[in-house]
Amino acid sequence: MDGKVLIYSPFSKAMLTRIAARFELIDAQGKPPREAFSADELGDVRAIITAGGEPLGRAVMESLPKLGAIVCYGTGYDGIDRAAAAQRNIVIGHSPAANSAAVADLSMTLLLAAVRRLLTADAYIRSGGWAAGQPSLRLAPPRGMTGRRIGVYGMGEIGSKIAARAAAFETEVGYYSRSQHDVPYPYHASLEALVEWCDVLMIAVRAGSDTRHVIDAAMLRRLGQGGIVINISRGSVIDQAALLTALQDHTIAGAGLDVFEVEPLAPGALSALSNVVLTPHLGGHTAESHIAMQDCVIENLSAFFAGRPLRYPVG
Amino acid sequence: MDGKVLIYSPFSKAMLTRIAARFELIDAQGKPPREAFSADELGDVRAIITAGGEPLGRAVMESLPKLGAIVCYGTGYDGIDRAAAAQRNIVIGHSPAANSAAVADLSMTLLLAAVRRLLTADAYIRSGGWAAGQPSLRLAPPRGMTGRRIGVYGMGEIGSKIAARAAAFETEVGYYSRSQHDVPYPYHASLEALVEWCDVLMIAVRAGSDTRHVIDAAMLRRLGQGGIVINISRGSVIDQAALLTALQDHTIAGAGLDVFEVEPLAPGALSALSNVVLTPHLGGHTAESHIAMQDCVIENLSAFFAGRPLRYPVG
């Protein structure tokens, strides 16, 4: 055992068992470390494992005097106060590509379900509507995938996998990203230009203060009546109140959302809509991507405790 | 107006309006023609438009003495008594590729929803389960798409489009078809060999007496515990009672079904299951594929009434 590791966010037993076989763990089970443990117990913690979206600020870092590494489970690290970590010489790692296929797969699942109105269709059978020959307005023939313009916002590991999948459905794919990438899809010079062009907006941008609420009421009007927005990134990218209004008054046609401004999402106006498909932040939640993300955590911690640079540092 | 056309199956108003602009129609609205119309009214009917899966036998043909063409809406023509038609020199047409993209898209929608347990996930949010932090066994991390072996049964227009879509999800694709095709996927010499190899079976075979119940209890055991079966072809290809048992006792993991032995499907044992995703035979049901199928009907009828061979004859 090389040194003590604090489990900051709640994680599955399967993961903790696997990590505990290699490192000494103490598990705060989602509670603030100072509530869960004494200063003494926290005194020799050298690394943290956290879900990257969960707020982890200066106060937590200060409660762990020997903290040298923050290892995020998954791609995101938007919850970490990077300036505070840099000041204390704390390195930050993540699992950059481990869950990208699973997340891209889920974004296509949400898109196809929204386009083909899968939830309505399934419920129509289970409720007996089909057997009774009941008319269903929501099952009038929708516009399908063929020829749709798919705008991918963000062209990192996940965005490029979304683009590859979407292109296989006889669509046109375009993208906007801070910089142009070597990919076979047209680049749009701004998010506005991309949204003006596309009728499906796939959000795959890294979340941060610069992307907060960039998808607002004006952007949704730009997406337009046939438009569908899919978000597997972070809830903060979308102004959720504006999205709710746009869905209610049919400014856009539909949405597929894996992430929300406040998680877990409570039932309410959003979940009352039939033109949305909702999943509880499970983009990276497949057996194989959990294993791959755990591999990244283990490689990051092993490197750190051996005094080497992290294997997957935050760029 | 070139001649009278009988509408045999129920079709949408939008379609009938479009066809009626070019041809003289009488609409049986799904009733047997002899019930709906007098012998006199049927006497000068020269063509029929029908949904290809709907039984259309010798008796109907005999009630239409001038019938020369049966035009199927969609790809399938398994409901037509082809021998009877041939004896009376009635030609048969269909819309071979018009809806294949839409059908392939739906098969991927069903597969992704089954793999990622979309219905359970959405219901978990809407019911308040996520907000309450309720555990959900059905939401334990599933095996995702990456590396899955996708077996495509049938390599026609639809099968090849399914294969192209599935391959974009970082899977392995293989197929079985009566004959080998010039496609970049390994060919398996028999359906048994394909099912033994794959863990997802995508049924895209043309239905007929030779394919009735080929997916039976033994074949489902061969597919195995992690297996998922998707059917967008015809309900007759699967022994539905055997499938129900295999889903209930977890001989296979799940299914996505757009077609059933008896349609419409009434709520019952199948729709009580959480490991199936069900849609009411809407594979080809998108705005653009309806237009394309109508185009095929119009081209077939125009050719027929001009005394030329059908534009899209049944092969």
The CATH H-level homologous superfamily of the largest domain in chain A: NAD(P)-binding Rossmann-like Domain
E-strand count of chain A:
11
Number of helices of chain A: 12
- Multimeric organization: homodimer
| Order of strands, widest sheet of chain A | 7-6-8-9-10-11
Low-pLDDT stretches of chain A: none
CATH topology of the largest domain in chain A: Rossmann fold
Q: Please trace the helix and strand order of chain A, writing H or E for each element.
A: EHEHHEHEHEHHEHEHEHEHEEH
Q: What form of chain A results from the Cα inertia axes?
A: elongated
The helix content of chain A is: 25-40%
CATH architecture of the largest domain in chain A: 3-Layer(aba) Sandwich
Assign the structural class of chain A, choosing from mainly alpha, mainly beta, alpha/beta, alpha+beta, or little secondary structure.
alpha/beta
CATH top-level class of the largest domain in chain A: Alpha Beta
Determine Rg of chain A (CA atoms, Å): 21 Å
Number of domains of chain A: 2
Distance between the termini of chain A: 28 Å
GO molecular function, one term (chains A, B): hydroxypyruvate reductase [NAD(P)H] activity
Protein name (chains A, B): Lactate dehydrogenase-like 2-hydroxyacid dehydrogenase
Organism (chains A, B): Rhodopseudomonas rhenobacensis
Domain D-isomer specific 2-hydroxyacid dehydrogenase catalytic (chains A, B): 5-314
